[in-house]
Design a protein that fits this description.
The chain is mainly alpha-helical and about 120 residues long. It has three helices and no strands. Helix 2 packs antiparallel against helix 3.
């Protein structure tokens, strides 16, 4: 949090800002200023990664079904291969985004995740 200390001090000079009611449940007593927002973003990131994983499984199953039902049709086999490739590429992108978020967490010292690396 030391990296953002000047920003926090400048914001404190503006006066007390109350969070919107829907964001208030993410803020716990004793949290540093802004920590509730990072916790909220952590929950959104966890949800997005979970949805991406479920979508990946369905894409694998769908690509397998297309491949099995191709019956030797080269276009369907190519379509199945493309779906598998796109699914694997999506998995790499999700893993890279988590890695990048972990690096940012380590560099800034701000706990972005509700889980640790």
């Amino acid at each position: 949090m030391a990296l953002f200390k000047p920003i926090v001090l400048a914001a404190e000079g503006l006066g007390k800002v109350t969070p919107p009611p829907w964001l208030g449940k993410w803020i716990k007593p004793g949290d540093e200023p802004g920590q509730g927002l990072f916790y909220f973003l952590s929950v959104l990131l966890s949800l997005a990664v979970t949805i991406a994983g479920i979508y990946l499984v369905f894409q694998f199953i769908f690509a397998g079904y297309i491949y099995l039902s191709a019956g030797g049709d080269p276009k369907k086999v190519e379509l199945a291969g493309a779906k598998l490739w796109q699914s694997l590429l999506g998995l790499v992108i999700v893993a890279a985004s988590l890695t990048l978020a972990g690096v940012i967490t380590r560099l800034t010292g701000i706990s972005i995740f509700k889980f640790t690396f």
